[in-house]
Structure formats: structure tokens, C-alpha cells
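Chapter summary example.
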Amino acid sequence: MLFAAQFFEKICAVFFENTISQGNCTFNSVESYAYLLFINNLADYKIVKNNSIDSVKLLFSITVVIMHGFLLDVRHPSYLTGLLTNGFFITAVPFYFIVSGYLFYKTIIKCHVKKWYVHIIRTYLIWSTVYAYTLLNIIQLTDASPSRKFYLILRAELTGVVHLWFIPSLITASLLCYLLRGVIEQKTKVVIVIIALIWLLGVALNWRLLLIHSLNCFWYKNGFFYGAPMFFLGFIFSRHETTILSRVVDFKKWITFSALLIIAESLITTSVINSLEGALANSMDMMMTTPLLSSFVFIGCMKKPGLRILNGMERLLSTFIYYSHILFLGLILWFFSAVNMPWSNLTRDMVITGFALVLIFIIGLVFKNKVRQII
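The structure predicted for these 375 residues follows.
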């Protein structure tokens, strides 16, 4: 794994050789260069961070665990459950991509692109190794040829096993953003229209696969249809941060409005899913209204950056929770399976989810220095 990380570091050095030091940086506009001079004049720039973004990420990471822990296993969900599985809880991942795009702009300005990619690829190598056991399901297929198994394993590694699809999608979205950064800066309005259309195409693909009972979600759950639109939005927010912060807008009203739209869409979606016979999924991954709520929540964080709920540990814990939760859910489920409990499957899964969250928090807080090395 160390060799692989070193190999990718060399690759990054080739592709991003102009971003290793500030003296060699290339800029797409005078404004970008001026922004670099501005942030370099801030003595404490490196230690300043948006606590609100980190805190919201932590809250969203908990919703991801709840989704994967038991909510996604609820067949024929009630409308209340649908508000979560087809609404508010699936706002988490779009928010993550927006945050990543926002920080990526600052990464380019500070000329740390190579370092950023090395870190992301190293993280993916670590966690894909941790979750290699999930590939056993492919190896144990009895009705697949060796070549078919090889293809499925290769596809899983390239697109990301289980929830790790986020990282390959992040890499794809960031590469597109890096290559098109000049266009994004110069033709922002056109780019916003294009990424909105791409997102809607992704939603249409999601619906199509749901209606034909297909689990091949990699067709839309990827760096192009899912990652790029949200990542580009974050990049644009960062590029126009000064303008956004100077505007006096009642974001509470906009957040409320977008939340009402999500409620309406989630009720319709839940009704349609419950009407399908033999549906393999009980929720959508992409919805038309989630980008709107994610964006306004993020802008709210930009406006009020001081929200802190865990004394500066929010960023570490949110990332660790996201990467590790499937592992801990599986381990605790294995333990409970060996013990006869007079519970329903739903009650058992809810208890397991609670145990997993507590365990992850404890490990993250007690072994925080070790955890930093793998996220």
C-alpha cells in the first residue's frame, strides 16, 4: 500500500507540477491571484476554519449511519420514514460534495493540489483495503464465470465498494473541476445551468433504474452525475465567497422554502415506491430538491461560521464516522447474531446502530491521533 501511495504521488507530481509551490502557480484570472495575495496576508489563515461546516458534517454523518443502520431496511416505509430516507437524510452527501468543492478552490489558490490528491488517494487505498472483505460476496458467486467475477471486482474497486463510492466520485469531480476551472470562473451562470441539467439527468437515471428494479446505481451514483454538480457548486461558492458574505439575505426563509419542497417531493417519491411491486430499493439516492437545501444550509454555514458542538473534534469525527460506520455496523451485527435476543429485526438494527455510533465516537475521541492518520 505504501508503494501504491508513492506511485500515485509521482503521478500527481506530473499532472499538477505547476501547483507544487506558489512561485510556479498558474491562475485563471487576476481575481484568483489577488485572492491568493489576500489570504497570504492573513497571519492566522492556516488555523482559521469554519466550525459550522464541520458541525453540520458531523450531524449529517450521524444521519448516514442511521440510514445504513436500519432505515434503508424498512420495507414499504411510512410517509414519516420517507421524509428521512427520501428527503432530509439524503441531503448529507450533496452537502459533503459542496464542502469538498468549496475547500478545493482554496486548495488550488494555496497551490496544494498535489498534496490534496495524494491524501485522497492514500485514504481510498487504506479504506478499500479495510473493506476488501466485502468482495467475498463476488468471489462466492456460483453462477458467475471467473472473468465475470474479475470484472465485478474491478468495477467495485474503481467505483468504490459499499459507501466508498464517494471517493472515486470525488476524484472524478475534482479532476473535471480542475480542468474546467477557467470556464467555471468566467462563465459561472452557464456552468450552473449545465450542472443543474446534469443533476436532473442523474435523477432521471435513478428513477429509471428504480422502476425496472435494477441495483446498478453506479450509472448515476458517480463523479459525473452526482459528484460534479455539487462539487462545482461548492467551488463556485468559494470563488464568490466575498460576494455571498456581503449580501443581506434571509436564509432562514430560503432554507424553510427548500425544506418544504423536499417534503413535497419525498411524499410523492415514497408513495410511488410503495406502489411498486417487488421494488429492490425503498428510497432514492438523487432527488431534484436536495441540491437546493444542501446549498442554502451550506451558505448559512458560510454566513454563521461559529457553530461548534464538540470542541473542535467535529471534522475528525464526521470523517471517521462516514468511513468506518459500515465496518462497525457489521461487527456489532455479527456479535448480536451469535446471541439470541427477543427482538424484532428492526429493533435489533436500531440497537446495533446506537451501539455503533457510541463505539465510533469513543474510538475517535480516545485514539484521535491514530484516527487522523487514516482519514
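To summarize the output: The chain has one domain: 2-75+91-238+310-372.
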